[in-house]
Amino acid sequence: MRTTRRVWINYQDEKRGAEEGREKLKEPVAVVGSSGLRSVGRIVVDELVAKTQPKPRLFAELFSYGFPAAYYGPSYLGAPCGVGAKLERGGLARLPSVEFYALESAGSGENDILITRGYQSYNALNQYAVADKVADFFKELGVKRVISLGAQVVEEGITDCATDLELLEEMYKYEIKRTNVDRFLGFPGLVVALAREKGIGGVCLFASTTPNLANPEYPDFRAAKELAGKVGEILGIEIDTSELEERGTAERELIEGMGKGEEREGEGEEGEGGEGEGGEGEGGEGARKRGQEREDLRGYV
After folding, report:
1. I need a labelling partner for 93 at 20 to 30 A (CA). Which of 50, 158, 238, 299 fits?
2. How far is CA 144 from the centre of its chain?
3. Same-domain check for residues 145 and 275
4. How far, in Å, CA of 198 to CA of 191, rounded?
5. Is 251 among the domain residues?
6. pLDDT at 231
7. What is the mean pLDDT of residues 222-246?
């Protein structure tokens, strides 16, 4: 039992710890996202890490025996999984982890931002152990508020839930209405709930998405764009969402192209199978374009 519950944090600079981190971070607001429904929360966190200035600094990582290298189904539902190393682009092997980035002196307010790129554990015991460790870490760093990110398929627009009524009223100023969804599955929601038990207020923001039954975590870049814009407004920072718009368009074209390709295959089987004018060249270009679009989706599917 003790082995399966083991969770530990490594600092990028081993000489630094939570005490020094508290001195460096000024009443930080933690933003939490991970793999989940249509990968919306994870995409927004990735954009915060990649697009905000000054560039966020990776200062700590959390590791756990409960982190698998791959899931064979929705990670937030504890799907069957496999233990091992994750392979990054370039062929580097590393352990799965929760990553903590510091965005210091960000925005027009007085708070720094602690960006947390989460990871789903494979069962409830490990999920609680990891989320509890993260909540303790937030408390050590003096985090004043947690904003967790996700998605839902029931309501339109950006909706929320929070740990207290004051936060709900504050979010209403940003035209965010209270959700009627009754649960937030997975790592980000659990972190907010456990942080509340440690005296840290928090809010969960949900983007509106559509279900993908074949792959519930297939990325919805358009929903992520809407949520990223709202997060930037709340934090008082600029987040460039133009690439999310482009990737959302590419995703839609990819899906539509696959559908048209299936229709053409059906027509070809029914017809006599003549050689179309310029078909080979156009088909090759289309295949290359779809291949590039699939490469752009890597990391989410």
Report:
1. 50
2. 21
3. no
4. 11
5. yes
6. 97
7. 94
73 and 155 assigned to the same domain = yes
Give residue 271's region: left, alpha or beta (phi > 0; psi -120 to 50): beta
Burial class (CB in 10 A: 0-12, 13-18, 19+), 80: exposed
pLDDT band at 301 (very low <50, low <70, confident <90, very high): very low
| Burial category of 24 from C-beta neighbours within 10 Å (exposed 0-12, middle 13-18, buried 19 and up) | middle
* 150/282 same-domain check: no
What does the pLDDT average to over 240-257? 81
CA–CA dist 94, 87 (Å, integer)? 7
Does the pTM exceed 0.85?
no
Q: Can you read off the two tokens belonging to residue 50?
A: 């990649």
**Identity at 10, one-letter amino acid code:** N
**What would the pLDDT profile of 213-226 be if each residue is shown by its tens digit?**
999 999 999 999 99
239 vs 17: CA distance, rounded Å: 29
Q: Is 75 exposed, middle or buried (0-12, 13-18, 19+ CB in 10 A)?
A: buried
Reading the block at residue 183, the tokens are: 């649960």
